[in-house]
Specification:
single chain, 193 residues, mainly alpha
């Protein structure tokens, strides 16, 4: 029996697709989408359509949607916590670290942070990541307070109060409109005295 080839009048799927995305581009688009639209838009088909590529591109980089979500959460953690701590540690010493941390935290837009925290109500992975990030951030604030000779009994309380202020600011979207660097300096001084 010989091989028979049939000619069909169909375009090869993806033939006109020239855009190639790497994993980081998918993740960055996922973070932007999460911030602007929410977690329900974090589906392969919707993301691919908004990028003008096929779902195959998505599945080339991620084994499934849960894998994508985990990597997305990890990238958020790295960018908003690990990198921030590293940059502050490398650029600032002593009590100035608290002012630097508060400046970065209170001056930035919090749309993505708000979206991640909202997502945590419905996603165990997001809730687990949030808990890990909260612990790391609280520990870092307590370390700053410790190195600033704050009484050990007050370190945890002050760290919690500062972090609650930050999370409250995240929830109150309009809070940044009234916040200045002078306010940040006063807050840092208040918690360091």
């Amino acid at each position: 029996m010989g091989l028979i080839l049939l000619c069909v009048n169909t375009v090869l799927y993806g033939l006109n697709m020239t855009k190639r995305l790497n994993k980081l581009q998918w993740l960055e688009h996922g973070l932007r989408t999460l911030a602007s639209t929410g977690p329900n838009a974090l589906r392969a088909e919707l993301l691919a359509k908004s990028l003008g590529v096929t779902r195959g591109s998505f599945y080339w980089h991620f084994s499934n949607l849960q894998d994508f979500h985990r990597e997305l959460l990890n990238l958020w953690k790295i960018r908003t916590t690990d990198t921030v701590i590293d940059e502050i540690e490398n650029a600032t010493e002593g009590p100035g670290r608290l002012h630097s941390l508060l400046t970065r935290s209170f001056a930035s837009t919090q749309t993505l942070e708000r979206a991640i925290r909202s997502w945590a109500f419905d996603s165990k992975d997001a809730a687990k990541t949030i808990a890990s990030v909260d612990d790391l951030r609280l520990s870092y604030i307590a370390d700053i307070l410790k190195s600033s000779a704050i009484d050990e009994a007050d370190q945890k309380l002050r760290a919690n109060m500062l972090y609650w202020a930050y999370v409250g600011r995240v929830v109150m979207d309009n809070a940044s409109d009234k916040w200045s660097d002078k306010d940040t300096q006063k807050l840092a001084q208040l918690f360091l005295s």
